[in-house]
């Protein structure tokens, strides 16, 4: 940890720590209980120390805390202390009713006598996560993409090779990394191994934490009465020029989730716009007020690409959900609606 837990506790709870001690064995568990017991403000906190506040680490420790919390004495409050809490990690804690504090001084504690909510503090730059293998890099994330689009499917490695166009060595490394973080289960089935998703929401959130939407390389402007008209106009103009576009962001979310209207159209194209495309979409160097955002596809948009009933080619609902993080307008509302679609898709298995 960057800062001692006791120091941060005093800052967050505005009281002196009266005692810090290692916790004794907790009955009924296979391991020691919480890492520390901290007395402050007339209350004892059973503190679990973790370096990472990412959703995968938080999901694992929350389950662990729920197991041993029933064995704690009355009045002892389970609390997670991490180096830096992520939004998805905080959401998991809230879902399970787990209090938390991070080393920057952010916190969420809801008790009958204590209510603390601190967000947005940053005491140092985030540490670059360069250790180990990144299973959510641009290429490696093809595996998570394929897994998330197939609820309940039991994947053989051969099937994943075909779906992702990855070689055996790369695929094995990616699966091992996902398995080590408990995002997937790998089971033997005869002479083969089968891969299944442990929790679709945890896998999606872990990818979202590291996902970086491709930056638009050009912006166009078309005169239209609505975003839907712009969408169809862009698709028609590009089809006439044999450009295979894939629409994402708000237009795709509106198609999948029927959440409402939109203004700006975001799409992937195979390569940077040439002069003919620039003229067709009125692309200029002035990006103010543009209603068409154009990104170059690096291969991610091909996985799960769907031609809708309206004849428009859309990015998968998973990629659309991730791309909404880089959208203006009603992106938050759209992401919530689309997440419900994904939840229903997985619940139907």
Topology as H/E string?
Answer: HEEEHEHEEEHEHHEEHEHEHEHEEEHH
Q: Percent helix among the residues?
A: 25-40%
Kindly, what is the distance between the CA atoms of the first and last residues, rounded to a whole number of angstroms? 41 Å
Look at the helices and sheets and give the structural class: alpha+beta
What's the overall average pLDDT, rounded? 87
The CATH architecture of the largest domain would be 2-Layer Sandwich
How many separate structural domains? 3
Uncertain residue ranges: 26-30, 125-131
CATH topology of the largest domain: Beta Polymerase, domain 2
CATH class of the largest domain, anyone? Answer: Alpha Beta
What is the count of DSSP helices, taking H or I runs of 4+ residues? 12
Number of strands: 16
Name the shape in a single word: globular
Could you describe the largest sheet, including whether it forms a barrel?
Answer: 7 strands, mixed
Radius of gyration: 24 Å
Structure at a glance:
Helices cover 36% and strands 22% of the residues.
Descriptive overview:
The structure is a single chain. This protein is α+β, with helices and mostly antiparallel strands and 349 residues long. The chain folds into three domains: 5-118, Trna Endonuclease, Chain: A, domain 1 (3-Layer(aba) Sandwich), CATH 3.40.1350; 141-210, Arc Repressor Mutant, subunit A (Orthogonal Bundle), CATH 1.10.10.10; 218-347, Beta Polymerase, domain 2 (2-Layer Sandwich), CATH 3.30.460. The chain has twelve helices and 16 strands. The chain has helices spanning 5-13, 55-69, 87-96, 141-148, 157-164, 168-180, 200-210, 227-240, 249-257, 275-280, 317-323, 331-347; strands spanning 17-22, 36-40, 43-53, 77-85, 99-102, 107-110, 115-118, 155-156, 184-189, 192-197, 218-220, 246-248, 265-269, 292-296, 306-307, 313-314. It has a seven-stranded mixed sheet with strand order 1-2-3-4-5-6-7, sandwiched between helices. α2 (55-69) runs parallel beside α3 (87-96) and α11 packs antiparallel against α12 (331-347). The two termini are 41 Å apart. Residues 26-30 and 125-131 have low confidence and may be disordered.
